[in-house]
Amino acid sequence: MNAPVSKEPLDARDRPARLTVGVVGAGRVGPALAASLQLAGHRPVAVSGVSDASRRRAAELLPDVPLVEPAEVLARSELVLLTVPDDVLPTLVEGLAETGAVRPGQLLVHTSGRYGARVLDPALRAGALPLALHPAMTFTGTAVDVQRLAGCSFGVTAPEELRLAAEALVIEMGGEPEWIAEESRPLYHTALALGANHLVTLVAQSMELLARAGVAAPDRMLGPLLGAALDNALRSGDAALTGPVARGDAGTVAAHIGELREHAPQAVAGYLAMARATADRALAHGLLKAELAEDLLGVLADQERRRPGGAGAGETR
């Protein structure tokens, strides 16, 4: 049986060291964060989830923690993790505040990269303590996520008086707090999506093409290459650029596009966009010689015109 929850306002300075934790939205992120807080001595007491998948995740990562409605999660918890999709978060916060589910002194944490603490303003007006803690990590929805939080950076945004509390929670989860200003959250999230999400698409396309070329284990072939490329890029930035675009091998690039048109036409637009971006950066960094860049950019422009929907695609040739 759950102990009765005090309705008296709680001051953050008087809060017990260990907190009761609730999760609203048992997607891939929430149960993992709650499990990591449990390892730090906090006590998960309630979780909400709708889909069968979310219920399975909660059962795996938070065994014996009851599944209840969101309002009941807040009623039982001193620290509430709002781990719902970005587009759902503002409406959820407004609804919880309007229905009186939010209690004064309650720590309310969302994990959206897009939003800062301001999205929690309706809860702040109800007396909650708003924190935005976004783990810069991709999640699988399994126990491995808890291990991956060790050393993971978190984008932290909170009122100045709660900054230390926010950073302490991140450290307890094994993470590294990185302060992000409220107005910088959209740009911060864009940067992470550009790198991580698009990387998955590029790697998946590469593996598919290697399989079509007869490579038995594309993942084993790509692993060392991509690991080295990522390490070099993180260490050296644009100076790590290699390959036919950075060298100005226009003929090789044209051959690549020809292969894609035959075997993976859906990948042509992405190759052209990334090749142009790579050429621009290589040229600006002095890796691509100007005389070679002219031929290369000419190939890319010609191939772009040939692409369905590209500039000049409807012209008679």
Description:
This protein is α/β, with parallel strands linked by helices and 317 residues long. Helix content is 49%, strand content 11%. It has 13 helices and seven strands. The chain has helices spanning 30-39, 52-61, 70-76, 89-98, 121-125, 144-148, 163-172, 185-212, 218-236, 244-247, 250-263, 268-284, 290-306, and strands at 20-24, 43-48, 79-82, 107-110, 129-135, 153-157, 176-179. The chain has a seven-stranded mixed sheet with strand order 2-1-3-4-5-6-7. Strand 1, helix 1 (30-39) and strand 2 form a beta-alpha-beta unit. Helix 12 packs antiparallel against helix 13 (290-306). The longest helix is centred in the middle third of the chain and has 28 residues, at 185-212. It starts with 19 loop residues before the first strand and ends in an 11-residue tail after the last helix.
Short description:
This protein is α/β, with parallel strands linked by helices. Helices cover 49% and strands 11% of the residues.
